[in-house]
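Exercise 3.2. Students should predict the tertiary structure of the chain below and write it as C-alpha cells, then compare their answer with the key that follows.

Predict this chain's 3D structure.
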Amino acid sequence: MSVELGVLAAHVPSICHRENIPPFQENLVKEMDQIAKDIEEINPELICIVSCHWISTFNHYVDVAPEHKGILTAFECPDIISDVAYEYKGDREIANEMVRAGKSARIPVTAVDDPTYVWDYGTVVPLRYLLPKLDVPVISLFIAEAAGLDETRQWGEVIRSVIDESGKKTVFIFSGALAHNLVRGRINMPTISEQALDKQFIDYTMQRDLQSMQTMLPQYANTAGVEGGGRHLAMMLGIIDEEYKPDFKAYAQSSGSGNAIITFEKEKSATKV
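Answer key:
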C-alpha cells in the first residue's frame, strides 16, 4: 500500500468553528465533510499533513511525537481561533524513518519530539473536518523558508518513498491556499489576474500535466503570492504522480486568497496488492 488519497485542503480561520462559517465558504466545508467519509471508507493507517502555517526558517521538521495533544489559540487571529483542543495519535516509527531518509538524501531534516509544542491552525482546522473520529495516527510536517521549491519537491519524494516502503495505507493532506495576496475583508476574491493564475494551475492539475504544474509553480507562486511560497504544492508534486486521478471539489475566497479543495485518488489499477 502507499498514499491512497491526496487532499489539497483549506484552513481559513473562519471555518474553524462550524457555526461561524460565512455562506461563501460553506462549500469548502461541505466538500471536506464528504472527503471525511471517503477517508473513513479507505480506512487509512496513517495521515500525513503539511501546513503552510507551520513554518521554519532553515530546517525541515517532522513531528515524531507519539501523541499530539494541546490547546490552540492562533497567534494571527486569537479572536477567531482560541482555546481549540485537539488530540491525535502519532506514529513515531514512520516519522523517525522520514527523518533518517531525509538526512540520507542530504536534506536538512530534524525531528521534533516535544509534548509542549502546540500545533498551528493550518494543521488543526482541516483535521477537525477530515479526521473527525481522531482514531488514525497523524504525522505533521513543516515547510522551510530556506528551502526552494525543488528541494521541497524532493523532500516530498523522499517522504513518499518512506510511506511506500512502510506498506501503510496513507492519506496525505496539503493544507494551504493558492493565490494569497491578502487584503482586509473576508468576502474579497483574489484579483482577476490571480484568479486566472489559480485557474490555469487547477487546469494543469485536472489534466495531470505535472510537468506544466512544476514549470509554472515558481512564477505563479511569486506573482499570485501563493501561500507558503507554494511549498505545499511543491511537496504535493513530490507525493502524487500520473497514477492519481484529480477531482476538483470547490474554490472559495477568504480575504483576497483563493482556496481550493482538490482530491487525488490513486486509481485502482495502480494500487499494488
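Discussion points: The chain has seven helices and ten strands. Strands lie at 3-9, 46-56, 60-63, 67-72, 84-89, 109-112, 138-144, 170-175, 244-254, 257-266.
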